[in-house]
Amino acid sequence: xxxxxxxxxxxxxxxxxxxxxxxxxxxxxxxxxxxxxxxxxxxxxxxxxxxxxxxxxxxxxxxxxxxxxxxxxxxxxxxxxxxxxxxxxxxxxxxxxxxxxxxxxxxxxxxxxxxxxxxxxxxxxxxxxxxxxxxxxxxxxxxxxxxxxxxxxxxxxxxxxxxxxxxxxxxxxxxxxxxxxxxxxxxxxxxxxxxxxxxxxxxxxxxxxxxxxxxxxxxxxxxxxxxxxxxxxxxxxxxxxxxxxxxxxxxxxxxxxxxxxxxxxxxxxxxxxxxxxxxxxxxxxxxxxxxxxxxxxxxxxxxxxxxxxxxxxxxxxxxxxxxxxxxxxxxxxxxxxxxxxxxxxxxxxxxxxxxxxxxxxxxxxxxxxxxxxxxxxxxxxxxxxxxxxxxxxxxxxxxxxxxxxxxxxxxxx
Length: 413
Hints:
Blueprint: E1 4-10, E2 14-21, E3 27-34, H1 44-53, H2 55-80, E4 87-94, H3 96-102, H4 108-111, E5 123-126, E6 137-140, H5 150-159, E7 165-169, E8 175-180, E9 183-188, E10 210-217, E11 220-225, E12 233-234, H6 236-248, E13 272-275, E14 278-286, E15 289-294, H7 295-319, E16 328-332, H8 341-347, H9 352-356, E17 358-360, H10 364-375, H11 380-386, E18 389-391, H12 398-406
């Protein structure tokens, strides 16, 4: 099959795209960036509210994302010396809000109960309908529910989980799915962008200069950055790693409170300062200023992890598969580096059994889109997978609310 194809993961916080050879299914190049809609809010709820209350905001968000995706596409073609006209198919996976905004569709049904998308199957549009040049047809992945979308379908399509598999995309929407026979139970827990670095005081995507690892060895803090550049911010995986390190050395309490400098007997106490009325841990200090993990940042991570764990509990109850009955746990997300399952146990998302059966898959949704493009079945198998989903709403679910409060704290070290 001649020509080339584009795979795109349309995330709330980050974007990823790759160019493929249609004949071989080989990835030729990959790129990514930040979602430019973030100026309308860091999460889906904020953007939906903006779009509901202002047609101008909806139109601007559509323009922003269309322009940025086309820029990524042209960059990939230029890097690979492939004429844009040789791209014969584009496939995009995103959560329902992102896909609706891309298409300039009304979002009222997503913003208010019963929180349903305007369509649940895959959607086919032309490049012209997205105001792109070229003639490539564009396929958008199915959206089984209001907050379970194409990115989740793509993740599972690429991962091919077996029976009793828990699949977690720990991005802004916190989508998750649990396989039980022919049914895939799925939900979305509003985790916010903390795991992607999106709403942390010095958070950033995995770009040059992002801190990707933080270790505390004795009384020394050792960091590593992407590209070995001077540190300019911290990505989500490093923030989670730092929280585990602070818990282990007693700087951070299980309830989430940073101890004061006076309460810490080691020299690490000198790294806890007061900044704008709240405690903060100094990650790095140079002539340009301070990089901090603040008390507010820690609370954001607690909220995110509490929501994820509570959503997992609801799926286990609804599917009839308790956590000891899980056979595999598959993780993905735009963290910036590998996310170690042991860290998730330390902060209280996983239990010991899950650590042993966990596997991290970077670029989960993008890999699924690529696999669908390589299948050459006109996305029929994607549609079949989408029809297996049963979406469980968490809003107003007593078990979710109970478990959310129960799992807000970190486990005792």
